[in-house]
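An example makes the point: we print one protein in full, the chain in one-letter code, the fold tokenised, without further comment:
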Amino acid sequence: MDDQHTGQLKSIADLARLAGVSISTVSRALTGKGALSKRTRDHIQALADRHGFRLNVAAQNLRLGRTGAIAVLMPLGHARGQQLSDPFFMAMLGFLADALTARGYDLLLSRVLPDRDDWLDAFIRAGRADGIIIIGQSDQSVVLDRTAAHYRPLVVWGERAPGNVHITVGADNEAGGRLAAQHLVDRGRHRLAFFGDVGVPEFAARHAGFMAALPDGLRRDVELVRIPVTSDDSYAMAAAWFAAGNRPDGIFTASDVAAMSLMAAAAEHGLRIPHDLSIVGFDDIPLARLANPPMTTIRQDIEAGAHHLVDLLFRRIGGEEAGSVQIAPELVVRQTS
């Protein structure tokens, strides 16, 4: 038996000849990408192990002009203290990782502090990924539009606006705000407040929908509390707000994380939920149903959103035209209202 059959194989072509298959079949077998029968895949992998062959994926990607990775970026222009450990982001990242893995791609995660206007173009020039998913527009809509005008494989989780150049996937945030308003009105609440940073496009749309759906007699007295997005800061501000003597009977928060901070601060100041105060969150993260009491919230389907983001991105990578997707929200009534 010659060296090719007994020693270490030097190239993917050697392994393909030994297995009696094409080079592309060997590539699919060793990377786990693409359709291939289990029998063929196992046979090729066994031959590779027997002969000590390891595919140089980086070199292969370089030859193909791709990286095999999709970047998921979270720009923190408005809230630099926000962490990737935020429950909403953790849920979204898990679903994105699953969807990308199913397509044979790696996820490259980066938390971005946009200190200059060309941060996104600079990332693209570095050539670290074959496409980019942005989680949240923050205050970077102008940057996103400028880049989207010349870079196709870019999809954003966020608020859809008529003038956007970048394409988005996200909930109908105004509709979600209207659902929250109608629910609190139906519960007989009339001293209302909205907690959220309306400098964030999604939160601004939730506030706008909330206000638009209220009767005139309630709308003019709604208090807007610009609560931070981080849980520690939002709790401190909510606690100070209650300590100042504010006693609403209905609150809509821009996120479930903010709602949980608000619930803790309210209880600390003797407010019983939902007897004295009804609270409605937004997102329906897994922790919402585990809160004490379980949280009434506006559900946006995060798993469906992640799959839409990945699908639109790969359609655009493939040269297809693909527009924005808006997901209908749903009121989930639990025990905080």
Observations:
- DSSP finds 14 helices and twelve strands in the chain.
- The two ends are 77 Å apart (CA to CA).
